[in-house]
Design goal:
The chain is α+β, with helices and mostly antiparallel strands. The chain has five helices and five strands. The strands form two sheets. It has a three-stranded antiparallel sheet with strand order 3-4-5, with helices on one face. A two-stranded parallel ribbon has the order 1-2. A hairpin with a 3-residue loop joins strand 3 and strand 4. The longest helix is centred in the C-terminal third of the chain and has 17 residues. The radius of gyration is 16 Å and the shape is globular.
Length: 136
């Protein structure tokens, strides 16, 4: 299970858990990643099912950028933005921590663009369900 998703689902009673309760998680992904099969059909169905359950958490916003979305920016590498102050970026050969304000701002702008292109709620859920159905 992805550590961020596991963290969202954690029911620990520590101070860290109290901090997580105040946290918000905005997750964006491209529709194509729902279809990348990195395990057998059962593993993939389980992972996609986990996305469906995480969508229901009050602290989580999960958006999917559909194949057919009108693009305003190119897809970028996996990245995580922390409170507009820090970005963890994962290109192929290295993991980077970016803290330079101008560079962080570029990722924040890219996230905002992808956010506008994404679908949420029932539309995102339908894309995930279609990806599960395609495994059968």
């Amino acid at each position: 299970m992805d550590p961020v998703i596991a963290d969202c689902c954690s029911n620990s009673s520590t101070n860290a858990a109290a901090e997580r309760e105040r946290s918000q998680f905005a997750i964006l992904m491209e529709e194509n990643v729902l279809r990348h099969q990195l395990g057998d059909a059962g593993v993939m169905a389980g992972q996609l099912g986990l996305l469906l359950s995480v969508m229901d958490l009050p602290a989580v916003s999960l958006g999917v950028v559909p194949f057919a979305a009108a693009r305003t920016t190119w897809p970028i590498e996996t990245s995580t933005v922390f409170d507009d102050e820090r970005v963890h970026c994962e290109p192929l050969s290295v993991s980077m921590k970016i803290t330079t304000p101008d560079e962080v701002a570029q990722y924040v702008r890219a996230f905002a663009a992808f956010h506008q292109q994404a679908v949420y709620g029932a539309e995102a859920r339908a894309l995930i369900v279609r990806a599960i159905d395609a495994l059968r």
